[in-house]
Amino acid sequence: MEPAYALLSSAISMVGGHGAALAYGDTFKKLGYEIAPLVGAAAATFGLISGVMIGGPLGRRLIEKNNLKPDNSENFDTSVENINASSEKKLSSLDIIKNVVVILICMAIGSLVSKQIGKLIKMDFPTYVGAMFVAVIVRNVNEKTKFYRFDYPLVDGIGDVMLNLYLSLALMTLKLWELSDLFGGVMIVLACQIIFMIVIAYFVIFRILGSNYDAAVMCAGLCGHGLGATPSAIVNMTAINEKYGMSRKAMMIVPIVGAFLVDIIYQPVTIWFIKTFVQ
User: Fold this and answer.
1) What are the angstrom distances between the C-alpha of 4 and each of 36, 250, 274, 276?
2) What is the pTM of this model?
3) Span of 12-16, 248-252, 259-263 with lowest mean pLDDT
4) Membrane-spanning regions, if any (predicted)?
5) Which residue in 16, 85, 89, 214 has a CA-CA distance of 20 to 30 Å to 127?
């Protein structure tokens, strides 16, 4: 099995999700791996389903085996929902245009950043990565300066619509029958990753995080994100919270780590593997 396809069957697709799978798949395609986007999309889809299927049961097992209870004494002044809450004011067309313009500016600057990074590493670099980092900088600077008030539900909605359109257009062009020759190898890589995720979450991460209720919920989220995407992590944690009680720490930490912090390690490591084993 070619190293490029092995990489696309593992963390690139499972941690990065469909967006990263198709973006890096296009990069590999330019290097001569014609069915790379197909492999990435298939792996990302499999991971998305697997993450939801194993995350909830693993979290439930940890909670029931260790008789864990939520810490009702938690006192957070803010939460992810409060931070991203809408002003509940009726948005005018000007407000919508302002938010869209900021997104477009981040995309434009991000594409230039990605091109420069691509020149430095001498390979095509996914443009969404540069745009993501620029957007993170813009939001964090804005949180300090209060230069502009974003309507985060609107921005999230625009992002969801654009991602769904992108995935729909990309997946419509995939020819699944071309994956037949690589099916066995891809499934072995995917199975190994699932087994590793279960073992590391159950026996290692749970203990590192404190072996408490919050740790169990975060392990369920880890399975969702480590095999699928951040929304899968939130689905897993929400299901557990509804049954056993709220873990505010998990709902605060996991989305932040999954949405941004993981990329601090994920992107450089991915580039290193590509440079070492593919090019």
Assistant:
1) 8, 34, 7, 11
2) 0.71
3) 259-263
4) 35-59, 96-113, 125-142, 154-177, 183-205, 253-274
5) 85
Q: Does 181 map to a domain?
A: yes
Which pLDDT score, from 0 to 100, does residue 179 have? 63
CA atoms within 13 A on the CB side of 31: 21
| Residue type at position 238 | T
In DSSP notation, the chain reads: --HHHHHHTTHHHHHHHHHHHHHHHHHHHHTT-TTHHHHHHHHHHHHHHHHHHHHHHHHHHHHHHTT----TT---S--HHHHT----PPPPHHHHHHHHHHHHHHHHHHHHHHHHHHHHHTS---HHHHHHHHHHHHHHHHHHH--S---HHHHHHHHHHHHHHHHHHHHHT--GGGGGGGHHHHHHHHHHHHHHHHHIIIIIIHHHTTSSHHHHHHHHHHHHHHHT-HHHHHHHHHHHHHHH---HHHHHHHHHIIIIIHHHHHHHHHHHHIIIII-
In the predicted model, is pLDDT for residue 41 greater than 70?
yes
Asked if residue 73 has pLDDT above 70, the reply is no
Tell whether 136 is covered by a domain. no
Give how many domains the chain has, as a whole number.
1
